[in-house]
Amino acid sequence: MDKLLHDIQTFRAKYDGLRKRGLKETPTRTIVVDPLLGALGWDVRDPDEVELEYPTVDGKSVDYALKINTKPVLLVEAKPLDDPLDDVKGITQVVGYAANDGIVWCVLTNGFKWKVYRSVEKCAAPEKLMYEVSLDPRDDPGSSIEESARLLWRLSRDEMAKGTLDALGEQIFTDGKVRKALDAVMADPPRPFLKILRSAAGDGVLTPQQIKESIARIWVKGPSSTSANPRTSTREKRVAVQAESPSRTSKASRRRGKSASVYAESHHTSDKPREAVELYRAIDQFCLSLRPGAVERRYLAKYISYVIGKETFCSLHILRGGLRVWLKLKYNRLDSPPAFARDMSGIGHWGIGDLELAINSHSQLEEGLPFVRTSFEACAG
């Protein structure tokens, strides 16, 4: 890990210079990808460990096949440094190559951005994106080298041999499927399900309609809301307008003159990697469950907020590599703030609250949820 941290720091410092050179695929591989694979424990000079130009069924090749006990476990396709990695045809191709050969994992990279796909999922290729790591600090100015290294380390030879990525991928994609199924069931609960609930409640007097109405109140999908919500505070409206752009003058003024825009969940989750979306859904469920029916979720331009009464106790922004969560807590009053917490008092940011949590994994989420509860309790009174 130490070498990986060093290499990431080095490449971050060189990024602007490398980009000006307009590196094509081969120099990108030589200058950036090969050293990073080496730092992850893969020997690109050993064909039993890393097979270069791995052949595919259509006579083409993938740049790298990373192997454990001579068996490919991860395909890596490299692109030029300035490639945005968003070409659907290219994504579908490399994901298809992996799936056809029974290889669960594949990566698209331009050296600084690494997009990790789980090829065996039954969905369109772009939706198989599990997570993404960017080594460019401009993609997420608040991110640390340690965060990037930790996410990239999942692709290391040691972690692939342990099956760490396999276990995590299965959990994340399974949670997404089960959550979607539960949403469908709760939206229109079948009669046998209502009977089970009545039996479990131990009250034979409850009617199916009463249970349905209760589910509608309790189930943590919660009410949708928008930036046009009449109960949105003046401060929150101002923050939402200012968050549209770093400029708080002409652009913001033009936006104030427009009719209020309506935002929905898809505004925040569209095209985001599966892990980031599942992190959001988990914290979303937690916030709404703190006081079912009373906590309100509001979709704003740049973030989502959770309100109890008139107080916003949690705001979050979904990134491609995880979440940024802001809470109404003072960093200097916390006994043991987590390593991924940051004091934002006096620093401009989206959302409302002085404590920022950079949550990029489920383990960090579990560590951060008690702070969300503390913020809620402080605001709920």
Structure overview:
With 381 residues, this protein is an alpha+beta fold. The chain folds into three domains: 157 residues, tt1808, chain A (Alpha-Beta Complex), CATH 3.90.1570.30; 56 residues, no CATH class; 161 residues, no CATH class. Helix content is 44%, strand content 18%. The chain has a six-stranded mixed β-sheet with strand order 1-2-3-4-5-6, with helices on both faces. The protein has a six-stranded antiparallel β-sheet with strand order 7-8-9-10-12-11. Helix 1 packs across helix 4. It starts with a helix and ends with a helix. About 10% of the residues have low confidence.
What structural class results from the helix and strand content? alpha+beta
The coarse overall form would be globular
Strand order of the largest sheet: 1-2-3-4-5-6
In total, the number of domains comes to 3
Tell me the distance between the termini.
45 Å
Biggest β-sheet strands, sense, barrel: 6 strands, mixed
- Please write the string of helix (H) and strand (E) elements: HHEEEHEEEHHHHHHHHHEEEEEEH
Mean pLDDT: 87
Helix fraction, binned, reads 40-55%
Rg measurement, Å: 23 Å
Features:
381 residues, alpha+beta, 3 domains, 6-stranded mixed beta sheet, 6-stranded antiparallel beta sheet, 13 helices, 12 strands, 44% helix, globular
Describe this structure in a few short sentences.
The chain has 13 helices and twelve strands. It has 381 residues and is an alpha+beta fold. It folds into three domains: 2-158, tt1808, chain A (Alpha-Beta Complex); 163-218, no CATH class; 220-380, no CATH class.
